[in-house]
Write a structure and sequence with these properties.
This protein is α/β, with parallel strands linked by helices and about 210 residues long. The chain contains six helices and nine strands, in the order H-E-H-E-E-E-H-E-E-E-H-E-E-H-H.
Amino acid sequence: MSKEVQNQVVTRSAFVGNTTAEMLENRQVEFVISSEAVDSYRTVFKMDGWDLNRYASNPIVAYQHRAGSDNPDDIIGTSTVRIEGDKLIGVVTFEEADVNPKAEKVFRKIQAGTLKMASIGARPSEYRFGDETKGEDKDVLYFTRQELLEWSVVSIGSNPDAHKRNAQTIEEIRQTIIAEIPVIIDQEIKGKSVQEAQIMINKNRV
């Protein structure tokens, strides 16, 4: 796995989850940030692979992934993140209106149903194609270890270039795995029967 690919950030869309009236009174909204469902990029984030430590040390929530902006109001709140079954849950607490008018507007738009999406940024460190012996799709890319870097409230289709970059990142990771398969097979195939070797090749190819 190349260091260049290791440093790539992968995004995934998230949606508003179960938010109670009491939570809204406390300016809180729950999002299902990620799950083990296959997304539109044909990828899966495995729940047991999440590293949340870095995020927990600075649990900010941004608007439109502007965490590095020089406008402090682009940081609209903080959040807690937890794993619940096969889902990664984020609960954002929005800043007060007198502290951050932008946070207030985003919060009200979520309440109105105008804004309903979020997006996470994760740095994967281990990944593989699906293992059919585990009931997985061999054409799906599974991230098995990844670090949560940030998440943001976003508008649908607000930044098509970001989606293009993310698609390019996924393709780079796929091509890296494909390039590594002959090396892996060459190392593991020695001592195998012809039938065992063919099964291994079929299992590892795209």
